[in-house]
Amino acid sequence: MWLQGPAAEIQGTQGIEMLAYLKILRPSVVLLAIFAVVVGAVLSGFLEIFSIAVAVVVVALVCGGGNIINDIFDYEIDKVNRPQRLLPSGKISLKSAKIYAALLLVASIAFALVFLNKAQLVLVLFNIGIAFLYSWRLKALPLLGNLCPSWLAASSFLFGALFVGIGPTIILLFLMAFFANIGREIVKAIEDMPGDKRAGYRTLPLVVGKNFSTGLAIIFVVFAVLLSPLPWLFGLLSIYYLYTVFIADLIFAAACWRAIMDARKGQMLMKVAMFGAIRAFLSGLL
Fold first, then answer.
1. Which of 275, 255, 248 is nearest to 33 (CA)?
2. Does residue 40 sit in the same domain as residue 102?
């Protein structure tokens, strides 16, 4: 029989709550980190499926937990910038979010301790510390508040490579991701200016202005794009990488242009370009 009345309403409410707890992890950001771990491992020549799967779980837990911590500290700001988000809208309570984040991060440490090597465990602990410091204090500071999340995003490639060792291809990929992420984070800070100003933050756009910040963001992205041919020029990846990364570079160019007019749409397009750039590295193995 189909559920009717109160039973159907309860089931529907539970479904919405489960979706909320998934959404607060920011699945697109988590997916990007997972993709980066796999690429880092494969480019380093490490192909043990179980170990890579564990690394993927660990990074997903750290990334998701870090995103929740950020939302907790941004609660007051999001009331202005993004009142529809899960915490300010009341769909998830602050207490539940704190417990959820703690469980995810403790689980990530446990998995790393049991299944991964010491270098990866150290990186997990370091990144959890950075994620907390960023959300607590560093986010409010000009430029430093953009560097921290960029490190957290780009270090996923290093995490995957640490099964074997960090070679020149991984270093180039890390640098490209790091600089592109700095550009995107600056654009995000421009988008968040109203709430950040109310909270008393001194983010880069609030210190030097929107126009200067937009120009600086574009410079970082352009620098990442200029680095993109090097893996092929140095003979590290095949010509297929160059073809694929060229498409990602075009998307980055469009994102920069879009960021001048609309910060939100610009940074979202940059995320699409990042997926394309990561895919290009895999194509270069063919």
1. 275
2. yes
